[in-house]
Design a protein that fits this description.
The complex is a heterodimer. Chain A contains 15 helices and 8 strands. Chain A is of the alpha+beta class. In chain A, the strands form 3 sheets. In chain A, strands 1-2-3 form a 3-stranded antiparallel β-sheet. In chain A, helix 4 runs antiparallel to helix 5 and helix 11 packs parallel to helix 14. Chain A starts with 12 loop residues before the first strand and ends with a helix. Chain B is of the alpha/beta class. Chain B folds into 2 domains: about 150 residues, Rossmann fold, CATH 3.40.50.12280; about 110 residues, 2-Layer Sandwich (Beta Polymerase, domain 2), CATH 3.30.460.80. In chain B, about 30% of the residues lie in helices and about 20% in strands. Chain B contains 9 helices and 12 strands. In chain B, helix 2 packs antiparallel against helix 6 and helix 3 packs across helix 6. The longest helix of chain B is centred in the middle third of the chain and has 17 residues. Chain B is elongated and about 95 Å long. Classes of the chains: A alpha+beta, B alpha/beta. At the A-B interface, helix 1, helix 4, helix 5, helix 8 and strand 6 of A face helix 3, helix 4, strand 8 and helix 8 of B.
């Protein structure tokens, strides 16, 4: 009998992923064109969470904008308002008291840890599945995150949309009780984060899933506008906290973790080592925290409306996802004429279309998760 | 077993017979009891509230003890937790997902965005409350609601189910907005004090910039001024910490060369500018809308596009919503 191998070209199979897929980290739709298990071509669709923030801010006074912006990148809300407020303060030449500046950085770094913990936990879900081994990583990460949120609740009254920052300073002060809580938190987190780092960085299954998957070259990052852990994972030593320091980061000593190969493993490791560096920053803040005023302006109800001088200004800060910038065009009135948010996730996510072709479908989720997009930030 | 027996006592009575135990209840009560004790929510999140929802499902608050396990497929789920802002583009998908769920099914609107649109309610792309699209059983207020509030909402839903009093509500408030055909806005004269480059020269200029070491494109955006749009390109040289801003004045036909050949990252940025301002880029590989739906009319960030105007012409009208309701 003749053995016949039946070969049939099934052609291009398009598979939809999202916008409600749990592994897209939000509302994102990927159309994967498959050949077998291999991805040939990718089309991405976004905008499912486009809330028109840029249009909305054209109708709000400057002091009303930070709480709205905090809903943008909902994993690290303080960074968002911090970036905006830094831009406004540079435009209007407003001095910030030292204590306020320290407190801003304190909250921002606490949220950097909590943001990276969410990224790591959901990454575990992506790799292992909700009922596989990944769920335990998720549960551990969220357990630590709850501790951070408790401290934020003690200081500001809310769990993560803290409304800590206002133009000219901060709203809430810390006292001995809350400082003690932060110290306890640091003592609790330090061994845990180190433990997770040691376990995960040597875990065979984790390494097999992530090493050499989704390699982003230096050139691709630079030309696509990638930033944050995505760029640093590829070996680019660029962190705005160091290179173009704002607030009081130049008074603190910390390292910038950098990856080598630019694969998913390196990006995750960069995030994990950053959390450990953030702990160092918080420890230094607790040592150095000066006494003094909280805000250089009058309380908001009696303060004058902010009216920055005519012209445009751009200022960027380092959010947990990368370069978060605000480009504000002022016409001299109390509302911005135009405000552009330079969202780090938007640029980081644009790499996906170039990265996914020629990979396997099982790796698509790994690569997407390693970019850590937040869709409030992508779509704005 | 003890807890199950205890909760069963609420809906019926046990009788001891010689040799066997008997439990007597109404079937309706029994089904309601089963439904409320195994609510399987669809795991999809929209925005900030979804993070709090995840926190509620995870370690500390642990919704498993209420019999809740998230399902990724709508076919297996019977509870939809709408956590986050509902946009027009997502609204259609939420409707589809809701239709795919098998009955009996319930909806919790969590967070002020899902309830009423909150501070986004006047924005062109936002649906002012998910109850315009699907019927809602329980509203959980908060921005975002705390996990305690989530659990409270779920317990309220269980109460509703066990009493068999499910009466989901649609939005009955008429929130028709005045339709304005033309918005007259006073546009400002160009506010930039920097040099404005002619739009024909952008391609050569970018080549020149890149050779100077500015190999990082931060963003591209536009501003709508009187008589013309001005495009702003921001480049940086990360190794020397230098930034370079280039402002380009556009002609009346709003057209210029794409720079996505030089900076691949410009592809999405240019699509966004096209979407929001209607600027057309020559030689762009895929000049389509990126944030708004494909069939959207108008460019939202232009000054004569009013924030509220928006639901016209694209946003589904009250009649559309009404016809969806009757289809249920």
């Amino acid at each position: 009998m003749e053995n016949k191998i039946i070969e049939k070209d099934f052609g291009d199979l398009a598979l939809n992923m999202g916008p409600q897929h749990p592994s897209t980290h939000g509302v994102f739709r990927l159309k994967l064109h498959l050949e077998g298990e291999k991805i040939n071509r990718v089309e991405s669709y976004l905008g499912y969470l486009h809330r028109g923030v840029e249009k909305l801010t054209e109708n709000l006074d400057y002091d009303m904008i930070p709480p709205v912006l905090e809903r943008d990148d909902y994993l690290s809300p303080t960074s968002n308002s911090l970036g905006f407020i830094n831009t406004i303060e540079e435009m209007c030449n407003i001095e910030v008291p030292k204590r306020a500046s320290y407190l801003r950085v304190l909250i921002a770094e606490l949220q950097r840890i909590s943001s990276h913990l969410v990224a790591l936990g959901t990454y575990g879900l992506d790799l292992g599945g909700a009922l596989g081994g990944g769920a335990s990583l998720f549960l551990y990460c969220f357990r630590e995150r709850e501790k951070i949120l408790d401290v934020l609740e003690v200081i500001t009254g809310t769990r993560f949309h803290t409304n800590m920052n206002q133009v000219g300073g901060v709203r809430y002060d810390v006292n001995d009780e809350s400082l003690n809580k932060i110290k306890d938190l640091i003592n609790y987190l330090k061994p845990k984060l180190n433990e997770y780092y040691n376990v995960i960085s040597n875990d065979e299954i984790f390494m097999k899933r992530t090493k050499n998957i989704g390699i982003i070259t230096k050139e691709l990052v630079m030309s696509s506008g990638g930033s944050g852990p995505v760029a640093r994972g590829s070996g680019i030593n660029y962190d705005i906290r160091k290179n173009n320091s704002y607030e009081i980061y130049d008074e603190l000593s910390f390292e910038i973790p950098i990856g080598k190969n630019g694969d998913s493993y390196d990006r995750t490791m960069v995030r994990m080592r950053e959390t450990i560096e953030s702990i160092k920053i918080i420890e230094q803040i607790l040592e150095k925290l000066p006494e003094g005023a909280l805000c250089s302006r009058k309380p908001l109800k009696s303060a004058k409306l902010l009216k920055p001088p005519k012209g445009s200004h751009y200022k960027a800060i380092e959010s947990p996802r990368g370069e978060l910038g605000f480009f504000i065009v002022s016409d001299g009135t109390s509302m911005p004429y135009r405000m552009k948010i330079r969202a780090p996730s938007f640029s980081n996510l644009s790499i996906v279309e170039k990265l996914l072709p020629e990979t396997y479908i099982a790796d698509a989720v790994v690569i997407l998760g390693s970019l850590d997009p937040v869709f409030g930030d992508v779509d704005r | 077993m003890g807890n199950v027996k205890k909760s069963l006592k609420d809906i019926g009575s046990f009788m001891k017979l010689p040799g066997a135990n008997m439990f007597m209840t109404k079937t309706e009560d029994l089904f309601n009891w089963a439904n409320k004790s195994s609510l399987w929510p669809l795991s999809f999140g929209l925005a900030c509230c979804a993070i709090e929802m995840m926190a509620t499902f995870s370690s500390r608050y642990d919704l498993d003890r209420l019999g809740m396990i998230t399902r990724a497929s709508p076919r297996q789920a019977d509870l939809m937790i709408v956590a986050g802002t509902v946009t027009v583009k997502m609204g259609e998908r939420i409707k589809t997902l809701y239709d795919q769920m098998a009955g009996p099914k319930w909806v919790i609107a969590a967070g002020s965005c899902a309830i009423s649109g909150d501070h986004y309610r006047h924005v062109y792309s936002v649906v002012p409350g998910v109850d315009w699209i699907i019927p809602v059983d329980v509203y959980v207020p908060g921005c975002p609601p705390t996990p305690e509030a989530f659990i409270d909402g779920i317990l309220a839903l269980q109460d509703i189910i066990s009493k068999g009093k499910s009466a989901p509500t649609f939005n009955s408030v008429s929130c028709e907005r005045k339709s304005i055909d033309e918005v007259k806005v006073k546009k400002k004269e160009i506010l930039f004090d920097k040099e404005l480059i002619d739009s024909n020269l952008i391609f050569e200029k970018c080549n020149e910039i890149k050779s100077l070491g500015y190999n990082y494109l931060n963003f591209i955006t536009a501003t709508d001024f009187d008589n013309s749009l001005v495009l702003t390109y921001m480049f940086s040289n990360n190794f020397e910490n230098k930034k370079l801003e280039i402002n380009v004045k556009l002609g009346p036909e709003n057209r210029l060369d794409s720079i996505s050949n030089i900076y691949p990252g410009a592809e999405w940025q240019e699509r966004e500018v096209y979407d929001m301002f209607g600027v057309k880029f020559n030689n762009h590989p895929k000049l389509e809308r990126i944030l708004m739906p494909d069939d959207w009319i108008g460019h939202p960030l232009l000054k004569n596009y009013k924030m509220e105007q928006a639901k016209l012409p694209y946003r589904p009208s009250r009649e559309d919503y009404e016809s969806w309701k009757t289809k249920l």
